[in-house]
Amino acid sequence: MRFSSLDEWLRWQESCHPSAIDLGLPRVREVAERLGLLDTDATVVTVAGTNGKGTCVAALEALLLGAGRSCGVYSSPHILHYRERIRIQGHYASDEAICSAFEAIDQARDDISLTYFEFGTLAALYLFREAAASVWLLEVGLGGRLDATNIMDADIAVITSVALDHIEWLGPDRESIGREKAGICRPGVPLVCSDSEPPASVLQIAAELSCPLHHIGRDFGFAEEATGTQFWVGKQNSAPITTHLPKPSLAAALQVAQLLGLYTHLPVELFERVELAGRLQYVHWRARTVILDVAHNPAAFQYLAGQLHMRHPGERFVVVVAMMADKDLATSLNSFVDLASDWFLTIIADLPRAAPIEQLQRSLPAEANVKTAANVGEALTEAARSTSGPILVTGSFYTVAEAMRFLAGNAGIDQ
Prior knowledge:
UDP-N-acetylmuramoyl-L-alanine:D-glutamate ligase; 8-stranded mixed β-sheet
């Protein structure tokens, strides 16, 4: 099958193969074998975790490129354009390259059905091979054990965090979720874990597979001097850290870099250039500070609240929020109760998973100062008109994407 544009390919994939967790990895593996993708000399690093995967991958990418290593990055979801999912040597793959990969996959699969995410995973691997990337960084989409990225045997596995999210797929507690995430482990392959209190299921699987475990707080971590300067500390060396990136995910990337033998002296200044769209992203719009963050589960909201308390002591925020109905809305939103002066609740149009405004409102305390809006753009406009203070936009990748599109098209976003 051939389409003239990437958008046409994606529309076809979405209509024929709904995006969902993969329940049949043998199908994906069969297509990968037909394409010769599984037999690679590249080093594969697979990163799983509830939160912090994207930060870990971006930081590790910076270290690899700084060391002169060629690398490919596969991450998800994207915010504005599908190209964001596939990077080679720090650059997004082109529409033409992705279309070419999709066409090759479609021909190889014959009558095998693939989901949207599986097509994308195979396309990334195809393009990494075409570019002869020496390291493949794979961010797990959902869980780990059944995720399409798990067709590749990792040379190093990373678990950044284990928290409650996607419980309908992964299980109702951290033990169940940890078991799914530890599905990326392979016998004898190092496991880097930056969750300070990993579930017993993760430790058990690592022990059963004889995985050398590198655990934050025991084998690597952070120390702080009396002056407030923080240092990453490993068993062999240490390095000062000044970046704003989340420390556990950064620590995991540094530990992987050590395992790969990239540096004897870690050039941590590389991290100063690492930026992740939609993660504590500050923009200026109509003389206002707008903060964009894709937090969408309780652990991410708690981390975001802690960062805002630290960066803006005593300040109150105007919170624009739209979330998915299958999330723990009350626990998430109540992390901001003492930070929010006003709430603007809205919804993502034409998205069945979006939580109705009424459901969001029921998740907030009765005394919360709540206003509603038909969409994110309207919420931002009303927030700018009727309130003061920084505006925080959060709740999902979809929410941040709508905000970015609106800000870019209205009075110019100034980053």
